[in-house]
Amino acid sequence: MSMFSFFQEMEDAAESSSKADFIKFGIVIIFMIAVMILSFNSMGELPTNIFLVVAALFGAYMAMNIGANDVANNVGPAVGSKALTLGGAIVIAGIFEAGGAFIAGGDVVGTIKKGIIDINAFHGDANSFIWAMMAALLAAGLWLNLATKFKAPVSTTHAIVGGVMGAGIAAGGFAIVSWGTMGKIASSWVISPVLGGIIAALFLYSIKKSMVFKDDKVSAGKFWVPVYVAIMTWAFATYLTLKGLKKIWPQIVDILPFLPDEKKPSFMVASIIGLVLAVIVFVVVKNSVSKRQNLSNDRASINTLFTVPLIFAAALLSFAHGANDVANAIGPLAAISDAVNSGGISTKASIPIWVMAVGALGIVVGLALYGPKLIKTVGSEITELDQMRAFSIAMAAAITVIIASQLGLPVSSTHIAIGGIFGVGFLREYLQDHKEVIKLDEEEKKLVKEENKLEQYKENLQELLDLDEEKKDKKVYKQIGKLYEMVESEEKILEEEARIVESLHRKQYVKRDAFKKIIMAWIITVPVAAILSASIYYMIRGMML
Question: DSSP string covering 122-187, please?
């Protein structure tokens, strides 16, 4: 390739990249203009309040960053395992994220996320409260934007928690914070990834033992895959009933009167619903798998049996995420809207449809435009994933949330998913797969053999060198020269074998740089968001007073 051609390719690539960035920026601007129009129209006959318009823009910015960063955890493993293409994952996640937000996002949201600050500390000062919520939204969005740029999947819940805490401290001092609640949130930094990692590793190990390590993998797969998919169905049905449908449960009870008349579903009710669906799915999958022909007796065939269940898992995780985490963007915005319209501060605020639209559509826009970077990171840049590993991660996400909710433990869906990826990666390192173990054993035996050969050459050489000079004739000197060459050649062979054995011993299935970067990002999310939020609050107050 000529130098001219090289620079021409560089120029074309740069031009293509700049065009793509320009188009993305244009779409963002159009979305922001639509949000402004929605916020203006929402005021009706009330005087125009610029705070609500600006807060709506901040909320839209936060929602887009949730889509760009957080949604990757739901579909990244499916993309990394090749069960879904990147485009297919974005379409599925976009539809189910928006569906979860609109259908099960609820009509009432807590104005103070997780109850981390005391609303009474504002003493009814609606302006200070509005400024604090605006600062929290912008700070959380800025931190998520920065984390996405550096390919670090972080908890959007922790980002908004840090934002609310920082603005709350700036507005009312350190006494405003519920430090007990903050302690529980901090504990989730450990609880979430550890639980997710352990459960994902256990499922992957179970799959390996029951199918991959069997001589007749096809028969084992046809027996066990329906069982694992049924367990997945129970987990997701229970999870979605508890977390995704709790806000519309009264409406569901009205439609299905045989269900218990409760404000939200109990664990027992959710489990029974999950069990019924699991039995139905087991029968369907069992019939489907038994009819599969042309399956070869290898790991790849087992993986193909998990492809469709994995796609459903990605869709269901996206639905649950949209139902729950949309509140991270619209909670403070709904609080601001309520404060503007009522002139007061409420612990609970109804969510206008336009606010819900800002959150739901913002997540979809952020996912479509800027989500691919984190999807690739989660799917392939932490550890190599196939369908059974990705399936184990999805299972861990659902089951960990169920266990944690019943034990009252605080967890983060982001930390669970990434912890699950770490878990399957470290399990692979521990087991090193059968082929790697066999290869390592063979190379170690070969290394010992070469070491013995080298030692023998050296002994033979030394024997000849120790001969009296009168006994060293031309033939002996020729043997000595040949042995020197053999020793030198054997030392090179031995050096290469030692390098191979060392590389097999040190083979890492989890990329340590990614591991360290993500853990560090998790640790600093709350304090960084808090510092940013406090600074923004002081800036807003300084401009207004």
Answer: GTT-HHHHHHHHHHHHHHHHHHHHHHHHTT----HHHHHHHHHHHHHHHHH-GGGB-HHHHHHHHH
* pLDDT score of 275 more than 80: yes
What's the sign of the alpha-carbon dihedral 211, 297, 225, 381?
positive
* Among 450, 463, 461, 459, residue whose Cα is nearest residue 491: 450
Helix/strand/coil percent split, the chain, to 5 = 80, 0, 15
Give the confidence band of 537 by pLDDT, cuts at 50, 70, 90.
very high
- Euclidean distance between CA atoms 536 and 534, whole angstroms: 6
Tokens for 461?
A: 């050489």
SS3 326: coil
Quick check: 107 and 412 in contact, CB under 8 A? Answer: no
Sign of torsion, CA 136 139 141 147?
negative
Q: Which helix (H) or strand (E) holds 350?
A: strand 348-350
Query: What was the pLDDT predicted at 6?
Result: 44
CA distances from 265 to 97, 219, 237, 270, 401 (A): 22, 39, 12, 6, 15
pLDDT at res. 325? 79
Cβ neighbours of residue 107 closer than 8 Å, sequence gap 6 or more: 247, 350, 351
Give phi and psi for 181, each to the nearest 5: -65, -40
Structure tokens at 11: 């120029």
What does the block give as tokens for 136? 């929290």
Pick from 35, 5, 6: nearest CA to 356: 35
**Minimal CA–CA distance to 146: which of 543, 532, 509, 534?**
532
129 alpha carbon, distance to own chain's centre = 32
What is the rounded average pLDDT of the residues 35-55?
82
What distance in Å separates the CA atoms of residue 208 and residue 231, rounded to the nearest whole number?
16
**175 CB contacts (<8 Å, ≥6 apart)?**
118, 121
119 close to 145: Cβ distance less than 8 angstroms: no
Burial of 274 (0-12, 13-18, 19+ CB in 10 A): buried
Tokens standing for residue 498: 């030692």
Residue 491, classed as helix, strand or coil, is helix
pLDDT surpasses 80 at 530 = yes
Q: Distance between CA 506 and CA 338 in Å, rounded?
A: 57
Distance CA(520)–CA(208), nearest Å, equals 32
449-479 tens-digit pLDDT: 888 888 888 888 888 888 887 777 788 888 8
Give the max Cα distance, the chain.
119
CB distance 158 to 526 below 8 Å: yes
Supply the pTM of this predicted model.
Answer: 0.80
Q: Would you give the distance in Å from CA 28 to the centre of its chain?
A: 24
- Report yes or no: 378 and 418 within 8 Å, Cβ to Cβ: yes
Around Cβ 344, how many Cβ atoms within 10 Å?
10
Whether the per-residue pLDDT at 7 is higher than 50: the answer is: no
